[in-house]
Amino acid sequence: MVGVQYRPHQFKENKVIEESQSPWASPIVLVKKKKQEGKEQEHRFCIDFRKLNEASINDSYPRIDYTVDALGGSYVFSTVDCAGGFFQVPLAKGDREKTAFIANHKLYQFMVMPFGLYNAPSTFQRLMDTLLRNLTLELILSKFSLAGLKLKPCKCCFGMSQVNYLGYVISGDGLKPDAAKTNVIANMCVPKSREEVKRFLGMLSYYRRFIPNFSTTAACLFELTKDKVLVKPPILIYPNFKNGFSIYTDASGLGIGAVLTQVVGGKIHSLAYASRKLNARERNVWAAKNFQSYIYGRHIKFYTDHKPLSTLVKSKEPNGRLYKLLLN
């Protein structure tokens, strides 16, 4: 625990944290950094902000996929890395107390944006976009200097034909998974608990765009993450036809499910469950909606093994329901 005693002192000297009298207090955790050859194992000092994150409003911002897709047509790539990037973003004084934590028998709070906050990545990316959008590399470096932001030279790349970026290898030909990341997945031990299966699926899901029929292939693993079905079967109540009903539905690329419920004594109770597989037409519509951010407003070719769909597309006067389907 020497590292725990050392880091707060260093953070305080660098004006990352300050002593606090906050009513908040999140626990601390130590996370191993990637070990460098010939050096001792280092740890990253982190705070478990899960409770604070639960009380936070989600800041929606473009996904990594959209950032990568914007690189189309590029053949020369440069990447820059901010040294302690989050720590270069100041926190509003009124919000600092929410980041409080206990270390060395004292209460501290962050003066800058710490790792672990739910909205920290989107906040940092918005700052980068505000400063650097549509600028040349020369102007980008100038902007960093004017803003007082410091870079980490050993993690910067300039004028490269390919670069590693957010778990991908980016080049003029396109993108592919970073082998260092996929090797970690390939060398993982067989999951032995539901939590380990969830962790494994989370790593796989990051690269799902490279895996045809990912949901179908991984369906059996997703089933393992659910509570055991019928080991402790639910009690289905009898319907009371004097009261109203509610139906909850859920769907995937393969099927849809629903549960019929009623409220009894202020609680929701199940009456019956229903499910069925999606037919070919429904699956194709789902695929179009799934890629809507790419194809919306653009001319596309839709290849399908469901012959009636081709007749639908060619129809000059489809009925109302089919017309709505075409619009979607």
From TrEMBL:
<dbReference type="Pfam" id="PF00078">
    <property type="entry name" value="RVT_1"/>
</dbReference>
<protein>
    <recommendedName>
        <fullName>Reverse transcriptase/retrotransposon-derived protein RNase H-like domain-containing protein</fullName>
    </recommendedName>
</protein>
<dbReference type="Pfam" id="PF17917">
    <property type="entry name" value="RT_RNaseH"/>
</dbReference>
<dbReference type="InterPro" id="IPR050951">
    <property type="entry name" value="Retrovirus_Pol_polyprotein"/>
</dbReference>
<keyword id="KW-0540">Nuclease</keyword>
<keyword id="KW-0808">Transferase</keyword>
<dbReference type="InterPro" id="IPR041373">
    <property type="entry name" value="RT_RNaseH"/>
</dbReference>
<keyword id="KW-0548">Nucleotidyltransferase</keyword>
<keyword id="KW-0695">RNA-directed DNA polymerase</keyword>
<dbReference type="InterPro" id="IPR000477">
    <property type="entry name" value="RT_dom"/>
</dbReference>
<dbReference type="InterPro" id="IPR043502">
    <property type="entry name" value="DNA/RNA_pol_sf"/>
</dbReference>
<keyword id="KW-0378">Hydrolase</keyword>
<dbReference type="GO" id="GO:0003964">
    <property type="term" value="F:RNA-directed DNA polymerase activity"/>
</dbReference>
<feature type="domain" description="Reverse transcriptase">
    <location>
        <begin position="33"/>
        <end position="137"/>
    </location>
</feature>
<dbReference type="GO" id="GO:0016787">
    <property type="term" value="F:hydrolase activity"/>
</dbReference>
<dbReference type="GO" id="GO:0004519">
    <property type="term" value="F:endonuclease activity"/>
</dbReference>
<feature type="domain" description="Reverse transcriptase RNase H-like">
    <location>
        <begin position="241"/>
        <end position="325"/>
    </location>
</feature>
<keyword id="KW-0255">Endonuclease</keyword>
<dbReference type="InterPro" id="IPR043128">
    <property type="entry name" value="Rev_trsase/Diguanyl_cyclase"/>
</dbReference>
